[in-house]
């Protein structure tokens, strides 16, 4: 970790003790940024803390992004350590079991909406409040991890699709309202990945095989179609450039190896 191109920049990545979030956090650290992460998996969080705390630019906090008080504290602790918040990466999320609406339980609906959509809203809310207070460089950037399911209707289950459509709307509205304050929002609409932990919270013991067989995702070929974590992380670093973020403000960018084909 020798690059200093983002020295003095503070990044908060949610759900980042493993999988995609950890890859993103590692990429920012490698560029010299101060990085705070949160996760609810304490074992994985402790291991990641041990791996990176020697940099002196790393903070790992156990936090539930569906809890408003916890999110407020997360942002406050990040700012207390590093002085500001320049970039929020809203990565925390969970997959569904491909249930169509007729098979979907309210319990699953509430859990997925709570984490994917409400959690993203709460993190944006407190990130924006902090970014509005900051002196030069004013503002900040919010990167929202979305999905093919943010703009396609039939490549996941019903509740995941609704939640990811919702985060795309959050990006567009936040970009429109706060862009003139130097606060930019960009969505990355990711294709399928095979080396994340997105399915852990729900548990694939409830996977709806019959529904999946009818779904567009049934055509997925991991060896050809999977999006690589390192490439998503590089894109997040690219968007740390304030001029690029300003130009991309309000964009929801497909990043999916053209699967399903455009």
Automatic annotation (TrEMBL):
A single MF term (Gene Ontology): oxidoreductase activity
Gene3D superfamilies documented for this protein: NAD(P)-binding Rossmann-like Domain
Keywords, in A-Z order: NADP, Oxidoreductase
Domain of life, source organism: Eukaryota
Pfam families in alphabetical order: adh_short
Database matches in InterPro entries: NAD(P)-bd_dom_sf, Sc_DH/Rdtase_CS, SDR_fam
Segments passing through the bilayer: none
Sequence similarity: Belongs to the short-chain dehydrogenases/reductases (SDR) family.
Protein name: Uncharacterized protein
Lineage start: Eukaryota, Fungi, Dikarya, Ascomycota, Pezizomycotina
């Amino acid at each position: 970790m020798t690059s200093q191109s983002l020295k003095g920049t503070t990044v908060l990545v949610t759900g980042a003790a493993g999988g995609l979030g950890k890859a993103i956090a590692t990429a920012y650290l490698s560029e010299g940024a101060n990085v705070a992460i949160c996760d609810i998996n304490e074992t994985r969080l402790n291991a990641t803390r041990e791996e990176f705390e020697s940099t002196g630019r790393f903070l790992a906090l156990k936090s539930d992004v569906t809890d408003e008080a916890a999110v407020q504290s997360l942002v406050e602790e990040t700012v207390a350590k590093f002085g500001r918040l320049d970039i929020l990466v809203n990565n925390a999320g969970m997959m569904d079991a491909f249930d169509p609406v007729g098979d979907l339980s309210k319990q699953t609906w509430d859990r997925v909406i709570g984490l994917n959509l409400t959690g993203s809203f709460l993190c944006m809310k407190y990130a924006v409040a902090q970014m509005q207070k900051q002196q030069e460089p004013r503002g900040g950037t919010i990167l929202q991890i979305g999905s093919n399911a943010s703009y396609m209707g039939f490549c996941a289950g019903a509740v995941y699709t609704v939640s990811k459509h919702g985060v795309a709307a959050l990006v567009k509205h936040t970009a429109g309202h706060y862009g003139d304050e130097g606060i930019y929002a960009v969505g990355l609409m990711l294709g399928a990945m095979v080396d994340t932990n997105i399915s852990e919270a729900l548990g694939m013991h409830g996977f709806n095989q019959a529904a999946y067989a009818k779904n567009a995702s049934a055509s997925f070929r991991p060896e050809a179609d999977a999006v690589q974590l390192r490439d998503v992380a590089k894109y997040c670093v690219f968007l740390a450039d304030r001029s690029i973020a300003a130009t991309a403000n309000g964009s929801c960018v497909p990043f999916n190896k053209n699967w399903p084909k455009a």
